Amino acid sequence: MAFNSTFTPQDQEATAEQLASERGWLLLEFGAPWCAHCQAAQPLLAAAMQAHPQLAHRKIEDGKGRRLGRTFAVKLWPTLILLRDGQEAGRLVRPDNAAAIRQLLDQATANS
After folding, report:
1. Structural domain boundaries, residue 25
2. Residue 110: is its pLDDT beyond 90?
3. What is the pLDDT of residues 45-83, one digit of tens each?
4. Looking at the domain assignment, is residue 4 inside a domain?
């Protein structure tokens, strides 16, 4: 699947239980379409994701009334959470450079 270069949520029905049952590596991106930090991170995330095309990536809209963000203790946007077999393996809050994102994503390659 090609990288979505705008913050457009893709899976609003996902639950923590469903994500916990996922096998392999999965990058969750919590944010909101109107969030300036989320929009600014998109080119950085796109650049970092080019080296990891096999990595599953889900954009999840967070905000008032959204339980999934609370389950993952998301406080600022964007928050990137790397899961391995449903367990958190890494987290990056408000990334401001592609190198930091690549470092997070490299865990998926190094520990496959």
Report:
1. 16-110
2. no
3. 999 999 999 999 999 999 988 899 999 999 999 999 999
4. no
The answer to whether the CB of 108 falls within 8 A of the CB of 84 is: yes
Q: 3 in a domain, yes or no? A: no
- In a domain, residue 5? The reply is no
105: domain CATH number? Answer: 3.40.30.10
Write down the pTM of the prediction.
0.89
With CA atoms as reference, report the closest residue to 102 among 55, 64, 59, 61.
55
